[in-house]
Amino acid sequence: MVAEFYRRLRDLEPSPTTELKYTNTYTLLVAAALSAQATDVGVNRATGPLFAVVDTPEKMLALGEAGLKSYIKTIGLFNTKAKNVMALSKILVDEHAGQVPAVREALEKLPGVGRKTANVVLNVAFGQHTIAVDTHIFRIGNRTGLAPGKNPRQVEDNLEKVTPAAFKQHAHHWLILHGRYVCKARAPDCWRCVVNDLCAFTPKVAAPNSTGARKAAPKTIGKVVKNTAKKIVNRRR
Ligand code: SF4
After folding, report:
1. CA nearest ligand 1 atom 2, residue
2. Which pTM was predicted?
């Protein structure tokens, strides 16, 4: 069932990748760190001009914190993020010869780099089979019953367990795209969802009627998600 779930998402997008724009591993790390609580579109708008002039930690240090802020001031929490980017750039220069380490522990020691950002870098830049759980994946893991969990780490661990090896490399991109464009937070487009029959969420959201109105997702959506997750867990016991 899980393999079929991924197979259908793969048929829609055989070679998915991050929607963050970057030019090398360092700029991927910076973009991922800046994307916390921000949209990829908003980050890309700011980093396009930035990465045209800064693509190494050395150049970032030369630009300086005030210079960096002038590029990223449209991104939420930009003051803190600018401080973190400067600090992580200094560590990369001082301790990693200016290179981004391909090791989780070293990545997570960098200021502003948590497990999710490390997973993105390890997966996209280094081809490791990590699954970065963002808000979309957390929702899908619970809503569909694929990998229920009370927090992102539980969902990640459960996805690691149920995702067949053949799909692990791209699993998080398929799930993010699905969450961003179909299984949306407020009201999922169940009526046009390719995994509709494999998903435990009920009641499914119907197609818009001829006036353009559509049956909204129930107000008790949180409760439904919770109950669905419980059912799946019980079924597995
Ligand atoms: S059927 Fe609906 S809730 Fe289930 S994965 Fe598809 S869009 Fe999401």
Report:
1. 190
2. 0.86
